[in-house]
Amino acid sequence: MKRKKRQVATFSVSVDADTKRVLKAHAERVFGGNMSALISAFGREAERRDAMDWLVRDAGGSALTDELRAELAAEFKGTKTRRKGAA
């Protein structure tokens, strides 16, 4: 998917070798190797997360306690999906 041309800024990022390998592999799979597109996608995701955080705070915060989150996580971890056999 082509994005409209915008003014771009160049910046440097330092990561360890394993992280670089993971990022390059992901960029290859999802963005045809375009690391700039990968970083742009990360930026858009950060914007979405910030907006969601703002919505939750504006609504009075989350009703989930840390204990309830842990309980739900444990319950979901043990949940298995059933698959129907071939007809």
Q: State the share of residues found in helices, binned by percent.
A: 55-70%
* Structure classification: mainly alpha
Number of domains: 1
* Largest sheet composition: none
Order of helices and strands: HHH
What coarse outline follows from CA principal-axis ratios? extended
- Oligomer state equals single chain
Mean pLDDT across the residues is 89
The percent range for strand residues is: under 5%
Summed up, the helix count is: 3
Low-pLDDT parts are none
What's the gyration radius in Å?
A: 20 Å
Number of strands: 0
N→C terminal distance: 38 Å
Keywords:
87 residues; mainly alpha; extended
Describe the 3D structure:
This protein is an all-alpha fold. It has one domain. The chain has three helices and no strands. The longest helix is centred in the middle third of the chain and has 24 residues. The radius of gyration is 20 Å and the shape is extended.
